[in-house]
Amino acid sequence: MSTISLHDTHNHDNHDDHGHHKETFLTKYVFSQDHKMIAKQFLITGIIMAVIAMGLSILFRLQLAWPDKDFPILETFLGKWAEGGRIKPDFYLALVTIHGTIMVFFVLTAGLSGTFSNLLIPLQIGARDMASPFLNMLSYWFFFMACVIMMSSFFIQTGPASAGWTVYPPLSALPTAISGSGLGMTLWLISMVLFVASSLMGGINYVSTILNMRTKGMDLWKMPLTIWAFFLTAVLGILSFPVLVAGVVLLIFDRSFGTSFYLSDIVMGTQILPNEGGSPILWQHLFWFLGHPEVYIVIMPAMGLSSEIMSVNARKPIFGYHAMIYSLIGITILSFIVWGHHMFVTGMNPLLGGVFMITTLIIAVPSAVKTFNWLATLWRGNIRFTPAMLFAIGMVSFFISGGLTGIFLGNASLDINLHDTYFVVAHFHLVMGSAAIFGMLAGVYHYFPKMFGRMMSKKLGYLHFWITFACAYLVFFPLHFLGLDGVPRRYYAFTEFEFMHKWVTVNILVTWSAIIAALAQVAFLFNFFYSIFKGKVATQNPWGANTLEWTTPVERLHGNWPGEIPTVYRWPYDYSKPGAEEDFIPQTVPFSQTMNSNMPHDFEGNSESERIQREWEAKNTPEDAPKLD
């Protein structure tokens, strides 16, 4: 109790007068230390990067669908990289590389976690701001610099990095290997180091804030699932991202200082290089030690957001709250011991491969627990189909359909045949890409009133959802069949081999679906930016939710609450409780005010005074019950 009091005092003493500081344009909008403004900066930067990545994907899909056709407009925009209106093979690989890098790291990691961890952690746990607002500001600007450096590689003579988003050596380790191995790769490496620095600053801040700055009564078992997801995501990032930096440092040594960590017995043209003793497999171990936790760094915030949104809009308590938390913890722990399933074809000892196969299949169990709990939450719920709810349900759909193919790829005997085919592309674009994007969009629609004080258009939201949902399946589901037929990923044209010819028509369908999906995002972008300025003004709690963020005023306030921070008495999912006057009971309502709906299990784990009150209530009439402070 004394710890909570100290934190509570800290929150009030140090942050009460934030609203009285004289703010300039720079301190309010650019170098802001307010977590809500930083969340908006992450979100809008993430949206811009997503639009760029989507544009790159349309470019290389044009090449795959019509490999023998010229598009003169491409030369206008891309210059020497598309002479005669046809994308060059080395630039095609650069497009694939930068598209993957932007989506995985800049949109789904920084855009998703950076936005919603910043927005919701202080608001949902009852804190004035982050543990270190200055560090929080720095984390955004490091991310912004990483984005700028990555995009600057399109404007250099040799072009962007070209080695796939996993940047495997030797293409990444030899600056003279191909044009994209030169300065473009150096910029990629610098950008990623800045990005990791940003992620670590953010992650340390998120963990510190959640552990130290919860309001009175907010114990770990009263935290919303969003906070649990952000907390465990930050832990994953803190433990796994430094390994990528170690790998990048060794790669820079190989590129610039003549070392041989990843290189051995290389012949360039007619020249035998002096490198010996290194192994490109070392890079794979270091990269995938981050790479697989990264999958969960991407999907867990989307899981947390979708859990919260489904409970609010199904007007039901989340099913299996404790099981959801334990499954998140299970995913966090197991994600560190599955990276080898990306490496079954590297000559790995079959015994070790068997160990990685078992852990990979075991990690499907907590994922299945979450899936069943979401479905049980929806079952017989009084569902409100808001755009946010539709995107949350869409997230579950993609997680199931994409996750099932993960069982195939986790099995070594099947993966060896499917490795580096379009089956893998289909799998991770559904389970990680589409599911995480839909979770992120659900969060944007749901929390837009909290961020901007206005409502987004429902009609445009429905249009955006249905077109995007249908097109995402049309883009990625057919790719499974290409993979089963052995079509390799990252190939420039499907006309090079006879057996691939039959798949060109499927690629045309996929490309048209991708173009339509891209056009659907125009509806979202218009809805988003128009609603910031012209949307209907939001009420304080437009969704009838229980969590603390909806107790703050609609207008922006640095410090979140104008007076005392509310005290928390109950868990965040008291929806449609028998005997209650309304179908939701906020966390700030004491049990003494809800006599008709209190249940025996409500008092488990609560404070001593509430247990005493429970005993008192058993002997007295509800009308005479004392009020708890």
From TrEMBL:
Give the UniProt subcellular location, in the record's own words.
Membrane
The record's annotation in PROSITE patterns points to: COX1, COX1_CUB
Q: Name one GO biological process term.
A: electron transport coupled proton transport
Q: What is this protein called?
A: Cytochrome-c oxidase
Membrane topology is: Multi-pass membrane protein
Q: Name one GO molecular function term.
A: heme binding
Q: Which residues cross the membrane?
A: 42-62, 91-113, 134-156, 176-204, 225-253, 286-306, 318-339, 351-376, 388-410, 422-448, 460-483, 503-530
